[in-house]
Design a protein that fits this description.
Helicase, Ruva Protein, domain 3, single chain, five-stranded parallel sheet, 307 residues, 2 domains
Length: 307
């Protein structure tokens, strides 16, 4: 009598869990050949993400619209995927000077799971919903579900709850036609193929998810006026390195010297965007601050309005 494990059958069908024919003998290879094989697989990631650019752009537009209307960007995932979401979320505040509550990472197993594996957390479909309810999810928010396999119950539960709440939902997975993608308004599926080490989805799948997250948050913040040209003019200068970066940003944006940039930043309370406006327009601080506020923080719009 044959006993079939449904989960085993599902895993056998997932691209992310497949065996890679090009690395079958990686355990007998030299050190250089091992890292070369891994690098060869990594070269497949960017083209796989490139094939998803129209879907990524749709997702960015949903997120940007949500943020403009008082909503939040919320990442939810388990294991590596959850940690990547948290990484992207926490880096938005120092990079773009946004509140910690604007971009939020939620991981199966809670804070403990950031550093330690929490057994069984990813299998809890109901907890995915409860964790979103716990942060008071609203219809104004956008929820991004992250799962290399596309079958993580915690994530599918979170996305189901998000849709019931009225949120726009985005699924990011590396296996097509899976529940996480099917539960989302926008499905982003980089087909990176089997991992160099079978099932080790922290590798190509994780890299693909990181690239997608970089685009989602960065493109959204660009659309929120957080940049001028390609400069991070809303960087939060909270330490010596970032103060030096802010000074350099003002100099690069205005072609002024260091002394002028330093003086402008002092007048602007170390806010690079405001300092740039001071240098380029010659306005006093209060007038520049008012102009920037009238243009909703968009420096380029403020400069155009001044002209």
């Amino acid at each position: 009598m044959n006993h079939h494990d449904p989960l085993l059958e599902q895993l056998n069908q997932l691209i992310s869990e497949g065996r890679n024919p090009d690395t079958l003998h990686i355990d007998t290879a030299s050190t250089l050949d091992i890292v070369t094989a891994i690098n060869t697989e990594d070269h497949k990631v960017a083209p796989a993400v490139a094939a998803c650019l129209p879907d990524i752009a749709r997702a960015v537009d949903y997120i940007a619209d949500a943020l403009q209307n008082g909503g939040r960007l919320i990442y939810t995932g388990a294991g590596t995927s959850g940690r990547l979401g948290i990484l992207d979320a926490v880096e938005c505040r120092p990079t773009f000077s946004v509140p910690d509550t604007l971009v939020v990472g939620v991981i199966a197993g809670g804070k403990t799971a950031i550093e330690h594996a929490v057994e069984g957390a990813e299998d809890d479909h109901g907890q995915g919903a409860l964790d979103l309810a716990d942060i008071r999810l609203s219809a104004h928010d956008v929820v991004v579900g992250l799962s290399a396999s596309g079958r993580t119950p915690y994530v599918t539960g979170a996305l189901a709850y998000a849709r019931q709440t009225g949120c726009k939902t985005i699924g990011v997975a590396c296996s097509p036609n899976t529940p996480v993608l099917q539960a989302a308004d926008v499905a982003i599926c980089p087909l990176v193929g089997p991992e160099a080490l079978t099932g080790s989805t922290r590798m190509k799948s994780g890299t693909a998810q990181k690239l997608v997250l970089n685009m989602l948050s960065t493109a959204t913040m660009i659309k929120q006026g957080k940049t001028y040209q390609n400069l991070m003019v809303d960087v939060n200068a909270t330490n010596h390195k970032l103060k030096a970066r802010a000074r350099r940003i003002v100099m690069q944006a205005t072609d002024c010297d260091e002394a002028t940039a330093t003086d402008a930043l002092q007048q602007a309370d170390q806010q690079a965007k405001l300092a740039i406006l001071l240098v380029l327009t010659g306005l006093d601080v209060e007038s520049a601050r008012t102009l920037l506020s009238q243009q909703n923080g968009y420096l380029r719009h403020a400069l155009k309005a001044h002209c």
